[in-house]
Amino acid sequence: MFARPFIDSMDFAINGKELCGEIPIVTLSRLSDMLANSAGTLSYRVRGSQRDDRHSLEIVLQGTCNLRCQRCLGEFSYPLELTAHLRLLPADKLEQMDADDEDAIEATSQLDVLALIEDEVLLALPFAPKHPQEACSAPLKDLQQSANPFSVLAVLKK
């Protein structure tokens, strides 16, 4: 069984702690609608840091997600490599931040690391994933290249 890691985010940052591991993609339930299948794992590293009066978490993720191409509906592997820096702030200061400021999350004593990682993966995946155009095998590719729309009907009639 896979235990969900929880951390005290401020203590984690103040003491410069680090947490590493691998997550089976199937355990990230909110991703299921975006994936072609839930096979594989993601490697993660969460590192806390403190510089002056600023506490932050660095999240590094690596792995491969199996997405569905929106052109041909075929499955393809999407390499995921991301590094995110999140500032830790109390709830009242978080509400005062502008949307254009740096990325920040609320500092809590029970931060769910898997939920945080899942949020970062959801933000990193493309909205409409597609193969590169030359690698895509869209079924209507030959029909779309025809200049005369009636020639398409002639092909379909046969």
Description of the structure:
This protein is α+β, with helices and mostly antiparallel strands. The chain has one domain (6-157). Helices cover 23% and strands 37% of the residues. The chain has helices at 9-14, 91-96, 113-124, 141-144, 149-157; strands at residues 6-7, 18-24, 35-37, 41-51, 54-68, 75-89, 104-106, 111-112. The strands form 2 sheets. Strands 2, 3, 4, 5, 6 and 7 form a 6-stranded mixed sheet that branches. Strands 1-8 form a two-stranded antiparallel sheet. Helix 2 (91-96) links the parallel strand 6 (75-89) and strand 7. The termini are far apart.
Write the layout of secondary structure elements.
Elements: E1 6-7, H1 9-14, E2 18-24, E3 35-37, E4 41-51, E5 54-68, E6 75-89, H2 91-96, E7 104-106, E8 111-112, H3 113-124, H4 141-144, H5 149-157
Parallel strand pairs: 6-7
Antiparallel strand pairs: 1-8, 2-4, 3-5, 4-5, 5-6
What's the short story on this structure?
The protein has 158 residues and is an alpha+beta fold. Helix content is 23%, strand content 37%. The protein has helices spanning 9-14, 91-96, 113-124, 141-144, 149-157; strands at residues 6-7, 18-24, 35-37, 41-51, 54-68, 75-89, 104-106, 111-112.
